Q: What sequence folds into this?
């Protein structure tokens, strides 16, 4: 019988505190869904033998695949191997090949393997050992009475390549012919209810299709996400369905969709700049450098990012950006003429092709009845397009106002570059 | 018997995808630990009746307190209320007071309550209704055969004040006299193994104390965290123990500890600047504005943040920061003389008291054998201190190099301001 359902168990008391969260399960979920295997329950369990055994036993009652992360280290706290062997009733044996590898790993650094690391070479009978190129803890794969049980280390850079190997190897062989195919649309500049209104009639039709399409709308800071997925044994058909549904949604949501391939806004803007051989510069006040920081998060961005100026007070807006004093006095720092002058100033100083000016009130202080917290003015200058300036009202805390401001500014750059092509 | 153990169940199929993660459990864990209640297992379950019932049944076998978040909405997908009533064998009754409140909430917006919202007024017999000031879904508190069962909505801004009320009210009454007291130290500029070496002898003593102290070392990007906690009925004693242990650790780790009260680095630096009435400006190359963005994430930072310049290429370093062309030609853009010249340039242009210059290679491209990816030069100028400049070698991806660079620069500002006091 093909494997269809999965449960993920993250092991480690540090994941039960107030500062750490399990994120490995996102990666694992993504890879499993590529095999048509759906995650039904995820758990986090401390380094406690009886809790771990109970959660594992329950997982076996309902999941075809159980994936553990963590608890494979060499110390007494690392219980995953032992508990899995106990629950499945499998004796442990010492695997000399693993022991040799761990010894060699230490030897390469001129060290002798500590005795405690022998534990990592203990293997439940019948387990397939999964090589760990990035650490000492090997992983394990067990085929047990119709269940696949996978034990992986906790650190993502060890876990991820090992799980990729499991998915390509033993899990792939045991998965069914059906796979889950996905696509996503990322939208900004439209509220969730507007997106829902536009998407709903399209969704409804595809949901009743054959095979049915699963659809989700998720609202996040500065964007709305539409996620579509189809489970099908016929990959060409599934991809065609997703392409068609995406095409219909693009028709309904148009210019508000900034990404249909998972790229972030700063990557989309960067790719547009690169394709057209243009450079960008920004003059930021309330966003404090976040716009430039997002642009420069993208590898290769030095090809199109020129320079930026962050000018918090009026004196610096004059000195660093040549904003006329009279303009500041007449309209105030948070005003459309000043935003345009900031963009013009950074363009003149750097010679960049595209220039952004942002000025606003991020809060929590500084608001007035006329210009409350969240008032942000954005100006964009781009070749072949009219100068853009608009006043926004954003809602939320300081960092949320900052993010939404940069999102709106980048989105405007995107649309001006796309339109003027 | 006092409540001591807890389990948290987050409900919602959207939390089982690849883009969303349950973070409510961090808040709940923190509040529970204030009552001496420890979380042993956390789960995420989709909108599935049988999975939800099974996970709840198992939680009841081992946890004194079970906290649900999510699944309290008005639709058929929202199953938490029904499943809890089913498992506990409690009949549901319609609560007219809740119904009136939901109706009034809609009426305030000029709307009639949709029939579907009647579901939110269904209450298992004996439940205490928890008012939700920020949404329609009320919460529920059940006292059942020695277990406390709490049902909360998923959105954090609805969940958090409601859970605060539960902790101050019914949970507090049922918790024991013991509470968990915590403190943390945040360290930067020292590797995990160095921190461990320094902390271990101190830890060992406190761990064997009475009551014993729990200790954890966690390595994160750009910092190492030490977490200490004591469970005690005597709050004064616990706090004294934590103060003493913290004092010993501060003695051993000294200037590398940047925060002992949960403040982030950018808050610590901001508070130092504010206390001394100083302003700051930065000239950033490879960090692309991240340093300034972190500083300006702090409410009130406009009091001490002057301005910043982001200069990616050499022409802009000359034009915007007055870095001499000869210096760039002789030493290269990533060099100590250039970092100092950048800091001097931004200081001269803005008149800020403290000036930072950062230049480096964030990668993945741009590295050379002499200056590999991760090479970052940081300079800091501060009143009453010698000019600082140092070349770092950071490890990791582009965004990690960026973050570590800003962390090292802010930490240097912190130390120079603390030293020159």
A:
């Amino acid at each position: 019988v093909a494997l269809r359902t999965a449960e993920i168990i993250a092991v480690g008391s540090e994941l039960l505190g107030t500062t750490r969260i399990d994120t490995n399960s996102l990666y694992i979920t993504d890879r499993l869904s590529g095999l048509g295997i759906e995650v039904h329950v995820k758990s986090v369990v401390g380094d406690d033998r009886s809790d771990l055994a109970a959660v594992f036993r329950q997982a076996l009652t309902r999941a075809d695949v159980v994936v553990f992360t963590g608890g494979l280290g060499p110390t007494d706290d690392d219980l995953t191997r032992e508990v899995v062997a106990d629950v499945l009733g499998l004796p442990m044996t010492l695997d000399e090949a693993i022991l040799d590898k761990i010894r060699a790993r230490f030897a390469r650094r001129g060290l002798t393997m500590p005795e405690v690391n022998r534990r990592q070479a203990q293997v439940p009978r019948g387990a397939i050992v999964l090589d760990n190129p990035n650490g000492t803890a090997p992983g394990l794969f067990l085929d047990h009475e119709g269940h696949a049980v996978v034990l992986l280390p906790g650190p993502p850079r060890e876990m991820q390549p090992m799980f990729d190997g499991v998915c390509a190897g033993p899990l792939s062989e045991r998965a069914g012919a059906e796979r889950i195919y996905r696509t996503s649309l990322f939208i900004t500049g439209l509220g969730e209810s507007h997106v829902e209104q536009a998407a709903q009639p399209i969704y409804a039709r595809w949901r009743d299709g054959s095979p049915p399409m699963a659809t989700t709308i998720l609202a996040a800071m500065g964007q709305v996400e539409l996620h579509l997925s189809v489970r099908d044994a016929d990959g060409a058909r599934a991809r065609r369905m997703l392409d068609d549904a995406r095409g219909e949604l693009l028709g309904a949501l148009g210019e508000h969709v900034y990404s249909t391939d998972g790229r972030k806004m700063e990557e989309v803007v960067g790719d547009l700049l690169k394709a057209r051989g243009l450079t960008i510069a920004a003059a930021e006040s309330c966003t404090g450098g976040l716009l430039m920081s997002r642009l420069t998060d993208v590898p290769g961005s030095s090809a199109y990012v020129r320079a930026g100026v962050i000018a918090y007070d009026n004196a610096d807006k004059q000195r660093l950006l040549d904003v006329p004093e009279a303009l500041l006095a007449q309209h105030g720092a948070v005003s459309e003429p000043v935003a345009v002058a900031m963009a013009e100033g950074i363009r003149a100083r750097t010679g960049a092709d595209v220039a952004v000016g942002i000025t606003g009130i991020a809060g929590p202080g500084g608001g007035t009845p006329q210009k409350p917290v969240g008032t942000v003015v954005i100006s964009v200058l781009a070749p072949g397009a009219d100068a853009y300036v608009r006043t926004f009202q954003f809602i939320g805390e300081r960092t949320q106002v900052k993010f939404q401001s940069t999102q709106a500014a980048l989105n405007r750059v995107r649309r001006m570059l796309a339109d003027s092509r």
